[in-house]
Amino acid sequence: MADVDRTFRQLERNMQRVLRDVLSDFGPGSPLLITRGPTQGGQGRKGPPAEWMPPVDVLDAGDHFLIYSELPGVPKDKVKVELSDENTLMISGEYPKPEVYEKAQALYAGEIMYGKFARAIPLPPGKFDPNKVEAKLDNGLLTVKVGKAEQPQPKQITVE
């Protein structure tokens, strides 16, 4: 029975990896807003290696964007948030596996994702202000607020 469980867990991880690889082909200009981050060290990709991607929600809140990411149990000092020049917000870090796992005789269920994680969220070009970014981790929920850039207003020109 343990072999069957292990096989299905491996199948699930493989399916998640395939889905991430397929979605990584869509860039910021695609209809998909949230893509796999530039991870795994693949050709043409930059960024931290990752073993899993945290789930995220991205909201347009009027004068700013709100990005929420579930990171239960991840210590604040293990989370990194970066805003690149390429209009990409990168959330990365590591959720270390507790030492008790190394000493355990068997693992009967293994659904919690441990290890390095990364998620890239493309933002609309020219629509955000890199100086107005705040990040807060509270009770396992990362909240990133990205202020929108002030758009130039049309100027009325008097004809003489």
From TrEMBL:
Residues 47-160 form the SHSP domain. The keyword Ubl conjugation does not apply. The keyword Metal-binding does not apply. Keywords: Stress response. It comes from the Eukaryota. Belongs to the small heat shock protein (HSP20) family. PANTHER family: HEAT-SHOCK PROTEIN 20 FAMILY MEMBER (PTHR11527). This is SHSP domain-containing protein. The lineage of its organism: Eukaryota, Fungi, Fungi incertae sedis, Chytridiomycota, Chytridiomycota incertae sedis.
